[in-house]
Write a structure and sequence with these properties.
CATH architecture: Beta Barrel
Strand order of the largest sheet: 3-4-7-10-8
CATH topology: OB fold (Dihydrolipoamide Acetyltransferase, E2P)
Strand content: 35-45%
Distance between the termini: 30 Å
CATH superfamily: Nucleic acid-binding proteins
Shape: globular
Largest sheet: 5 strands, mixed, barrel
Radius of gyration: 17 Å
CATH class: Mainly Beta
Number of helices: 5
Order of helices and strands: HEEHEHEEEHEHEEEE
Structural class: alpha+beta
Length: 200
């Protein structure tokens, strides 16, 4: 049992973090800010082969992990290997899982409520998001891939548009209020806080 518990830690994937006193507060909504010229210039170094990134906003979100989904195929699996369904505000309380089921697939996330839920569809949509994760570095990727449901985390980085091979484009949402196609955030993650550690 002790070995299994230890392997649940982020370090089991070889990620190295540094201790931090910062504690994610998932009761608060995400913070979105303006992109600076310095940010735009830094983004040139993020290029990966034919793939380039255009930062559209700085972004910071503290949330509970509702669900995770790993992707492997093609250039999108290489660049965006993980989707995280995240919930903040009222959805940061694990008790809501008694009346809401979360699931992901095909780069989408879904939920199903039962009759006991006091949260309406719009309230759930406004307090949750499916975030397409672009890890900035291998160490961050290892830590992000080790996340599990109910983890309380904070992500910092940028919402980005991606230009891929053959003119492919992947655009991020810049609003928390949208739903349906194009409503997911595409996030270039530069820092992760989880379990008293910060990963870069």
């Amino acid at each position: 049992m002790l070995a299994l518990a230890a392997c649940a830690a982020l370090g089991c994937r070889g990620a190295r973090g540094e201790p931090t006193d910062e504690v994610p507060d998932p009761r608060q909504p995400p913070e979105q800010g303006e992109v600076t010229e310095e940010d735009r210039e830094a983004a040139y170094a993020w290029a990966y082969g034919e793939v380039t990134f255009e930062p559209k906003a700085s972004y910071r979100v503290a949330a509970r992990v509702l669900s995770t989904e790993r992707y492997y195929m093609g250039w999108t699996g290489d660049i965006v290997p993980l989707d995280l369904a995240l919930g903040w505000g009222e959805l940061s309380d694990p008790a809501v899982d008694e009346v809401i089921d979360w699931y992901q697939g095909g780069r989408w996330y879904f939920w199903r409520t039962d009759a006991r839920s006091v949260l309406g569809q719009r309230e759930i949509a406004l307090a949750s998001a499916n975030v397409h994760i672009v890890p900035a570095r291998p160490n961050l990727e290892r830590a992000l891939l080790a996340l599990d449901e109910d983890d309380i985390i904070e992500l910092r980085g940028y919402l980005v548009n991606i230009q891929g091979p053959g003119g492919a484009r992947w655009k991020t949402s810049l609003k928390r209020s949208d739903t349906g196609g194009g409503s997911c955030e595409v996030m270039y993650v530069t820092e992760l806080i989880a379990d008293g550690e910060i990963y870069r």
